[in-house]
UniProtKB/TrEMBL annotation:
<dbReference type="GO" id="GO:0005840">
    <property type="term" value="C:ribosome"/>
</dbReference>
<protein>
    <recommendedName>
        <fullName>Large ribosomal subunit protein bL32</fullName>
    </recommendedName>
</protein>
<comment type="similarity">
    <text>Belongs to the bacterial ribosomal protein bL32 family.</text>
</comment>
<feature type="region of interest" description="Disordered">
    <location>
        <begin position="1"/>
        <end position="21"/>
    </location>
</feature>
<dbReference type="InterPro" id="IPR011332">
    <property type="entry name" value="Ribosomal_zn-bd"/>
</dbReference>
<keyword id="KW-0689">Ribosomal protein</keyword>
<keyword id="KW-0687">Ribonucleoprotein</keyword>
<dbReference type="Pfam" id="PF01783">
    <property type="entry name" value="Ribosomal_L32p"/>
</dbReference>
<dbReference type="InterPro" id="IPR002677">
    <property type="entry name" value="Ribosomal_bL32"/>
</dbReference>
<feature type="compositionally biased region" description="Basic residues">
    <location>
        <begin position="1"/>
        <end position="19"/>
    </location>
</feature>
Length: 56
């Protein structure tokens, strides 16, 4: 694992941490049982196979 050679200042640490953000999942419209739902792209196969119930 990489180890810093010098201590990073508090302002630099906080500036770096503030740039990280979780992204909103990309919702894609799909049709299940005649109704249209918006679900995350990576879960489309699970919804189509019936592994997940249709979203509320």
């Amino acid at each position: 694992m990489a180890v810093p050679k010098r201590r990073m200042s508090r302002s630099n640490t906080r500036k770096r941490r503030s740039q990280w953000r979780a992204e909103v999942p990309d919702l894609v419209p799909i049709t299940l049982e005649g109704r249209e739902y918006r679900v995350p792209r990576n879960l489309i196969p699970a919804y189509r196979r019936g592994l997940l119930p249709p979203p509320a």
